[in-house]
Design brief:
The structure is a single chain. With 293 residues, this protein is α/β, with parallel strands linked by helices. Helix content is 31%, strand content 22%. The chain is built from 10 helices and 12 strands. A 7-stranded mixed sheet has the order 3-2-1-4-6-5-7, sandwiched between helices. A 5-stranded antiparallel sheet has the order 10-9-8-11-12.
Length: 293
Amino acid sequence: MTRPWSAHVRTRTGGKGSATNAVWSLVVPLKPLAVAKSRLAAAVGTSRPGLALAFAQDTVAGALACGAVADVVVVTDDARAGRELARLGARIVADAPGAGLNAALAHGARRIRTLRPGAAVAAMNADLPALRPTELQRVLEAASAFPRAFLADAAGIGTTLLSAAPDVELAPSFGGPSRARHSASGAAEIALGDVESVRRDVDTAADLRTALALGVGRHTARYSARMQATAYTYDSQTRSGSVLLDDGTPVPFEAPAFDAGGLRLLRPGQRVRIETDGEGPGLRITLVTLQTF
């Protein structure tokens, strides 16, 4: 069930330009899943839309579990993502501007403040699958000392969170080297250690490996587990064989699945990435290739 807008009554502010002891409303933007996380395509293939949704689910779930967060508004036009994120408790807002990331964030912030004037608002990426509520709490508590504040991503180039105190415009400038742009706009940089889960967005296979090592939420963990296996048998004459899923279940694959992965040889014991179709007894491997994350 979606959290009611009245949840914001817990917010306590210290006047204009201050968010002291605020309970925040978070705005999370999400592209249509068909085009989301395009830089991961080479590493995860057709699993990319499902993985993008899992990232968003763990981001929203982690945010809603944070005591400093009253509610989460997701700005998206993707019907499937909207349904799944609403089940977690997010409020879904259509991307009415349709003019890119920052326009979507500004639209979400305006929507919140139309219904709840003076709300403290923070914009946050949708690809933080390792998000820990306690770390987000620390970031938002630090942000409450400033009219506007931001947290740089793990690479130190982009931004994963931008906050605006009550009655202060959010003025987002996400994308590319946004750390420098947000700093130039007058937003204070949040200088905290031990909040890696709030900095760790996922754009590349290397980012995904790091997030998995850090410890992702249940949606990403479950989905990524379906993408990984260990080569069990392989017949070079028929180009067929089998893999062991991580739960120990053996699943056969045929030559078309092997050919689709672009491999010349497969050795038992190698970690592989798989793509599948169907569920349970009807599970069929459509691609097998070497694991790249």
